[in-house]
Specification:
alpha+beta; 4 helices; 3-stranded antiparallel sheet; single chain; 220 residues; 15% strand; 3-stranded mixed sheet; 6 strands
């Protein structure tokens, strides 16, 4: 065999070997740039959705906490307002009625002066200066008490009021309506509109209807 034939055979073997290697290599599918971009965008969208969901959960939790804190703050404010209001009422009552005990101690003094004036002999000229002094003292004492909210309850001639008066007895009377105060045995007193002692009174009741005397028929 000539050298030229040998050269041709060698070239054929090389070509066959190349074909065999080419067929043995795996087939790789062509991937476009658009497909890669879409795949990356899908991954980013999924991550964004997950992040948004997490943020929404955190926002809902924060909103619930804020609502709870607001409710607690409103309750605390309401409690503080109630305490402040009750304290103001208590202080006002303390100011208005601080003199109640002191006034109750002075009322018997006025009562005794008025009883003395009722039983003193006003026809005795020697006693007139004393009587005038007692009257002025009693009036001055009542005026001083009135400056601090103490007022007398003297309901003679008025309708009986169980909230202000204490009935000691009832007397039949045809001159006035029933339940009318006929006599005030002891005046009552109020302190800034609150009763500290009821007035002791005698009230009227309807006069009993006389029973008709039965007539006797003498001609029977």
């Amino acid at each position: 065999m000539s050298s030229e034939e040998q050269k041709v055979q060698a070239e054929k073997k090389v070509e066959e070997q190349l074909v065999t290697e080419t067929e043995a290599q795996p087939v790789v599918e062509d991937v476009t740039v658009e497909e890669v971009v879409v795949e990356d965008a899908t991954v980013e969208v999924d991550e964004s959705v997950a992040r948004i969901a997490a943020l929404e959960a955190e926002l809902a939790k924060a909103t619930a906490s804020a609502a709870e804190f607001k409710d607690t703050a409103l309750r605390a404010k309401a409690d503080a307002d109630n305490i402040r209001r009750r304290a103001a009422i208590d202080v006002d009552k303390a100011k208005k009625f601080a003199l109640e005990k002191f006034a109750n101690e002075l009322l018997p003094v006025i009562d005794n002066m008025e009883r003395g004036l009722l039983h003193v002999d006003k026809t005795n000229e020697a006693l007139l200066p004393l009587i005038e002094g007692i009257e002025l003292t009693a009036k001055s004492l009542e005026a001083a008490l009135e400056k601090f909210g103490v007022k007398s309850v003297n309901p003679e001639g008025e309708k009986f009021n169980p909230e202000l008066h204490q009935a000691m007895s009832m007397i039949e009377s045809a001159d006035v309506e029933p339940n009318t105060v006929i006599t005030v045995m002891q005046k009552g007193y109020e302190l800034n509109g609150r009763l500290i002692r009821p007035a002791m009174v005698m009230i009227s009741k309807a006069a009993a209807t006389p029973t008709p005397t039965p007539t006797i028929d003498t001609q029977a």
